[in-house]
TrEMBL record:
InterPro entries tied to this protein: Sig_transdc_resp-reg_C-effctor, TF_LuxR_autoind-bd_dom, TF_LuxR_autoind-bd_dom_sf, Tscrpt_reg_LuxR_C, WH-like_DNA-bd_sf
GO biological process: regulation of DNA-templated transcription
One Pfam family in the UniProt entry: Autoind_bind
Lineage: Bacteria, Pseudomonadati, Pseudomonadota, Alphaproteobacteria, Hyphomicrobiales
Domain HTH luxR-type as annotated: residue spans: 191-256
Gene Ontology terms, MF aspect: DNA binding
PROSITE patterns per record: HTH_LUXR_2
Gene3D superfamilies: Transcription factor LuxR-like, autoinducer-binding domain (3.30.450.80), Winged helix-like DNA-binding domain superfamily/Winged helix DNA-binding domain (1.10.10.10)
Alphabetic keyword roster: DNA-binding, Transcription, Transcription regulation
Name of this chain's protein: Transcriptional activator protein LuxR
Amino acid sequence: MVKLEEAIGSIETCSSTDELKHALQDIIEDFGFSSFNMLDAGNPHVDVPYYIGTTPENWVQTYISNGFVHVDPCVTRVRRSNAPFSWDEVEVPRYDGSGRKSGACKVMEAAHDHGFTEGFVVPFHYTDPLGRVFSSSSAFYWTDPVKKYRFLLSRKRYDLHLIMIYWAQRAIDIIAEQHRNRQGLLETQADPRTAVALTDRERDALSWAARGKTVADTADILFISQATVETHLRHAIAKLNASNKTHAVVKAIYLGLIDV
């Protein structure tokens, strides 16, 4: 079985997402897993989030076509947890044969129908340069008898966790580099700190609005007139393409343009 330092070393030398995918596949196969998949768990409203992995295409299509990302109990747990876990640690409502089967139950049954007997899931939460928090869910798929899986996990659980932390961080670094060289791999927009050029006074006005201050309060704090505060807010709203002051405040906070 591959040594921990060798696994991390192979990850750190990767210079593309394709190299990362093949490197991790080689590593997890050495542990006994059949495949893996990492998906963006931070956007619950997205039907097909960004993902990268080596799971069979028929499983990927089953997962996407059934909208499993919205009912997957593992993804739900990832959003609330930092610790890795196995599928058998996730609570899934039992189906007694009557009534409607839960979405969580359908996901796990479908996984077993595709030959997966167990899975090891690693949550990863990180902050980008703008201070925004993102979450990803990485799953290692097991197809051998569960007894072998439990024996492996009793000895290598922390190694797998550490390997995935290094892998996810390297993936972020590579994707960030690709963003700098061309339109982003994840199709994100340009850095909003430069795309939205708020003046210092516009940021001040939004910051105090975010703290619940009225126009009159902000005028007193900044030693300017109320009309000037309203002008700064109006300009900020326009630059942020917001519908009103509250909307502008929310967008400015999300984009890391102001602190609260």
